[in-house]
Amino acid sequence: MKVTKAQAQANRAHVVETASTLFRERGYDGVGVADLMAAAGFTHGGFYKQFRSKADLMAESAACGIAQTAALTAGVDMSEVVRLYLSREHRDARATGCTMAALGGDAARQPEAVRATFATGIESLLAALGREGPSVDGADSGQARTRSLDILAHAVGAIVMSRACPDDSPLADEILAVCREAILASLPSATASAPPADI
């Protein structure tokens, strides 16, 4: 039976979403094309009808995951974003958490197209985080961008370091707590002592 154009687009989107989840969970080298297509419910042979290479899928799935994170942060109070991001729940949710934290280290070793997708993703996250900047504390756009970049780098680094520790390590939780409190204390209207919200 011939697949309609709409169904082909839906199938491709499903493969991209599946890849986004699996890559975040296992890393780029931890997922082969055959396993990925099987997880999406398709045959291995169908991959090259939809994508030129695994690197193309890596770039597209990274863009998908980063867009999900940007959408979740848009319009949300910065202190709430920090509490949600630097929580144990997010740290433990590798497959559904932030693509930047899960794959940033892997991306550094990938083809330029994948790295370019991450650079574009960083810009989109900065834009999402910076929307409230000037209106909150009177900072100009340059100051708001600087603050957003500092918060993003600090938060992503904290998740990466926390995940590098054994799951039940007191250090893993300490990293999240210390960085969460430091970022919240730097925000103009922060309440650093408030408990982290559930993700």
Automatic annotation (TrEMBL):
InterPro entries reported for this sequence: Homeodomain-like_sf, HTH_TetR, Tet_transcr_reg_TetR-rel_C_sf
PROSITE patterns attached to this UniProt entry: HTH_TETR_2
Entry keyword set: DNA-binding, Transcription, Transcription regulation
Residues covered by the HTH tetR-type domain: 9-69
Gene3D superfamilies xrefs: Homeodomain-like (1.10.10.60), Tetracycline Repressor, domain 2 (1.10.357.10)
Molecular function GO terms recorded: DNA binding
Residues annotated to bind DNA: 32-51
Record has Metal-binding as a keyword: no
Protein name: TetR family transcriptional regulator
Lineage: Bacteria, Pseudomonadati, Pseudomonadota, Betaproteobacteria, Burkholderiales
